[in-house]
Automatic annotation (TrEMBL):
Cellular compartments annotated: Mitochondrion
Highest rank taxon of the organism: Eukaryota
Keywords: Mitochondrion
Native species: Rattus norvegicus (Rat)
Pfam families assigned: FAST_1 (PF06743), RAP (PF08373)
Name used for this protein in its record: FAST kinase domains 2
Source lineage: Eukaryota, Metazoa, Chordata, Craniata, Vertebrata
Primary localization class, coarse: mitochondrion
InterPro entries for the chain: FAST_kinase, FAST_Leu-rich, RAP
Keyword Mitochondrion: yes
PANTHER family in alphabetical order: FAST KINASE DOMAIN-CONTAINING PROTEIN 2, MITOCHONDRIAL, FAST LEU-RICH DOMAIN-CONTAINING
All copies of domain RAP, residue ranges: 691-748
Length: 763
């Protein structure tokens, strides 16, 4: 039982005993009981006054005492005792407790207790000791020692004010002047109708002196810079400090990047910034949880270092209060954590968030909140949690808007979860609403598809056709970004590439160095050749590159020349610049040297084997390490059955210029007869054709097509120059076939049509 309850019960029993034993007991005895009972029993939050039974009991007793007091007031010459009790109830303050608060100090009030005598507490009420219900009776009382600024703590309202000798009760009890206790004609019934009204002197005082809480939206409209917000804070700091950070973030979002960088520097050097940070740390435990999360997000976005004391304090406080997190707070917290670097507090908070999401995932109603949470849980989240979130998203698929569908690609890429069903459904919505889709959204979709290894030709074709149809409204760099994204996906959009090719032929001077290198990389990698203007296109690019030789870096020049060589075109000026000794030395000693050496070897090979004017030039280069090759075992078994033994073919043949082939077969020029490697007669050698059998993966082709990509096309071109007839075996097709069907499949690839016709007639 709480102290207030015990005291109230004790007072009630004492009063009954007094009235039973001494009905004519003086009024002072009744009032000596009523005075502490009113204070401890009626006003305490944990007192029996809040229990209906005790409330009724104490109310009846109090009214009884008041009626007796009013009836005997003319005859009792000690009525001043009752008035004294009322006066004490109105204006008294326990002198044993003092609250000392200072401006902008949001710590717990300093509480000083005097020596407490329980006996005095029960007998004298307010005169001595500390009442257990003082905290609740005076919970809105203002006690201040300073007039500079204002503060607020839990349960206590602080405002700048003058030092007072006594504290005013927030709800002071007073009587109407029209009803006097000394009126001879006042009856009990009239007295019960006395007009009691409450006046709050503290409310009036606080209204005049307490600064109005600032609205961050209004503050962001009134201020033009981050420093203006800090100036406003320094003049009249208010609670909560999160509003100032939110206002600064709103202002920072609407200004340019260069101005934002300059404003942030001024913000960090502003004298009030540290004061605001200190206030924010003190407020962290008492402000609303959603305000705390909004503050963390704004502070991180403003560029405050993550290892600063304020950010770490907020992270720790959010961890301690994570049980207060609802659906809205989940969204805010997830947004803040996405942009933060891993550290102990961030990792702990993310782990707590995962547990919370696992418990509340089925209760999330807002789709954007669901997607924000999915993006935040990270790639290292448990697979079971990812699967649960995927099932929740599939369940809500019917409520997906166009924006939700576009955003889902990025969300799944962020959590590294490849849900083909979900991606297919979202792709359909994106295709149906492709018109008007922003550039950043389309690029994000393509990049997410690359990260998830998701290939949807219909989606890619829809985006490419949309860009080609609206080609004139896009900037040149945007079109090149699209093509670079398609290249990483292995998708070749002929219509869009022809559009850009025509644009380059017409306006070659509009290309920058970066644009030239990017265009050459895309067209050489996808092996795109225009039927009519291919030569003009290469000449236009070579001319544009020649005009930029004075400002191009060595690596960019190497990349550009490498792309030209893959397309079997050799511009004189760029190659002459590249083969200079100082350029070659720079490429061999700086940057990605391994990649540079490989491209220089390709350059050497192209200059030797292709039709160029540089056949006599050889660039001395380090030898490339031999890569281990493992020919397809199933294809080797098929060739053994087809050619009746291993002596008619050779495995893993290493060729000059760093080329190797999986299998080599020697046949006659008509490819009707196979020769054994042991045969050495010269007559057969004059009529011999070397056949290179290459087992190629899907990545050697553009997406869902038979169009070879650049490197494989260049290799076949060079093998033909070296005298080989090249046969390509698709390993994904061979893998599906049984052995008998695989033998038939390879026979059709190796032998010519004439030989196959002769074989069929024999059978």
């Amino acid at each position: 039982m709480c102290p207030s309850t015990a005291a109230a019960n004790l007072y009630f029993l004492s009063y009954k005993r007094i009235r039973r034993t001494s009905p004519d007991a003086p009024l002072e005895a009744e009032l000596s009981w009523l005075r502490p009972c009113v204070v401890t029993g009626f006003c305490s939050k944990d007192s029996p006054w809040h229990v209906p039974f005790f409330r009724k009991k104490l109310t009846c007793v109090a009214l009884w005492v008041f009626e007796s007091a009013f009836a005997d007031i003319k005859m009792n010459n000690r009525a001043h005792t009752f008035l004294w009790g009322i006066r004490q109830f109105r204006t008294s303050i326990p002198r044993s407790r003092a609250l000392r608060t200072y401006s902008l100090v949001f710590c717990k009030p300093e509480v000083i207790h005097s020596k407490r005598n329980p006996r005095n507490h029960l007998l004298n009420g307010f005169d001595e000791g500390l009442q257990p219900s003082v905290r609740y009776l005076f919970q809105d009382i203002f006690i201040s020692k300073s007039v500079a600024g204002c503060t607020q703590t839990r349960g206590i309202i602080h405002a700048a004010g003058f030092k007072l000798d006594r504290i005013l009760c927030p709800r002071r009890l007073s009587f109407d002047a029209k009803h006097s206790f000394v009126s001879d004609g006042t009856s009990d019934h009239d007295l019960m109708k006395t007009n009691f009204h409450h006046t709050s002197t503290e409310d009036v005082l606080t209204k005049k002196m307490r600064p109005t809480p600032v609205n961050y939206k209004k503050l962001a409209q009134e201020c033009n810079s981050l420093s203006d917000v800090l100036d406003t804070f320094s003049k009249a700091p208010t609670f909560p400090g999160s509003n100032y950070f939110l206002a600064m973030w709103i202002i920072a979002k609407r200004i340019s990047e260069d101005k934002r960088r300059f404003e942030k520097q001024l913000m960090f050097s502003h004298p009030a910034f540290n004061q605001l940070c200190e206030q924010m740390m003190r407020e962290a435990k008492i402000m609303r949880y959603d305000h705390l999360l909004f503050s963390l997000n704004a502070i991180v976005k403003l560029g405050v270092p993550q290892n600063s004391l304020m950010v770490q304090t907020l992270l720790r406080t959010i961890q301690e209060r994570i049980s207060e997190c609802d659906e809205r707070c989940l969204s805010i917290l997830s947004t803040a954590l996405v942009t933060m670097e891993p550290c102990m507090n961030v990792n702990a908070l993310r782990a707590g968030l995962r547990i919370l999401v696992d418990q509340q995932v089925w209760n999330i109603n807002d789709i954007f909140t669901l997607q924000t949470v999915m993006r935040c849980i990270g790639k290292d989240a448990p697979f079971a949690l990812k699967k649960k979130l995927e099932m929740k998203a599939l369940k809500e698929l019917g409520r997906f808007s166009v924006l939700n569908s576009r955003h889902m690609f990025e969300v799944l890429a962020a959590m590294d979860h490849r849900s083909v069903v979900l991606l297919n459904e979202c792709s359909k919505i994106v295709i149906d609403n492709i018109h008007g889709c922003p550039f950043k959204v389309l690029i994000s979709i393509l990049q997410s598809c690359r990260d998830l290894r998701y290939q949807n030709e219909d989606l890619f074709k829809s985006i490419a056709d949309y860009v080609a149809t609206t080609f004139d409204i896009w900037k040149l760099k945007h079109v090149i970004f699209f093509l670079l994204s398609f290249e990483t996906l292995g998708f070749r959009p002929p219509g869009l590439m022809d559009k850009l090719l025509e644009k380059v032929v017409q306006e070659p001077g509009s290309l920058t160095v970066k644009n030239i290198v990017s265009v050459l990389h895309v067209y050489s990698s996808l092996n795109h050749v225009h039927n009519v203007q291919n030569r003009e296109f290469l000449e236009a690019l070579a001319s544009a590159l020649t005009g930029c030789l004075h400002q191009i870096s060595s690596e960019s020049l190497l990349n550009a020349v490498h792309s030209f060589c893959m397309m079997n075109y050799f511009p004189l000026a760029p190659i002459n610049q590249l083969i200079k000794e100082n350029i070659i030395h720079e490429l061999l000693t700086s940057g990605d040297t391994e990649k540079n050496i490989h491209k220089l070897h390709v350059l050497n090979t192209c200059l030797k084997l292709d039709e160029s004017t540089y056949k006599c030039i050889h660039i001395p280069l380090p030898q490339l390490p031999l890569t281990a090759s493992h020919p397809n075992e199933k294809l080797a078994e098929v060739l053994s059955r087809l050619l009746e033994g291993d002596g008619c073919f050779s495995r893993n043949v290493q060729l000059p210029h760093n080329y190797h082939i999986d299998f080599e077969i020697r046949m006659d020029t008509n490819r009707t007869q196979v020769f054994s490697f042991s045969e050495g007669d010269a007559s057969s050698a004059t009529n011999m054709q070397r056949v290179a059998v290459l087992c190629v993966p899907k990545s050697a082709y553009c997406l869902n097509s038979n169009h070879l990509r650049g490197l494989m096309a260049m290799k076949i071109r060079h093998l033909n120059v070296m005298g080989f007839h090249v046969i390509l075996i698709h390993n994904w097709e061979l893998k599906k076939l049984k052995m008998e069907d695989a033998v038939t499949f390879v026979r059709k690839k190796i032998y010519s049509d004439e030989a196959l016709a002769t074989t069929d007639e024999s059978v």
